[in-house]
Amino acid sequence: MEQGSRTLLIILCAALLLGALVVGFNPAYRQAFLSIAKGRPAESPIWKSNSQYYPDIALSAPAAAAPEARHDAE
Description:
By secondary structure, the chain is mostly helical. About 70% of the residues lie in helices and about 0% in strands. It is built from four helices and no strands. The protein has helices at about 1-25, 25-35, 45-55, 65-74. Helix 1 crosses helix 2 (about 25-35).
């Protein structure tokens, strides 16, 4: 059992390292990461390019705006 958990830990660390390398070297992924970290995912170049292909998908309203939307519907 200890060998399995150690193997899983190595796989997870390798995936984390590979993901960090991709984000570090690919400018589109780096900008997407920074946009999400700033709380503005719609500014991501990947989001912008995908919005052309999937026009029916939109970001959900912020939690503070949700009660107002329900109030207006009543």
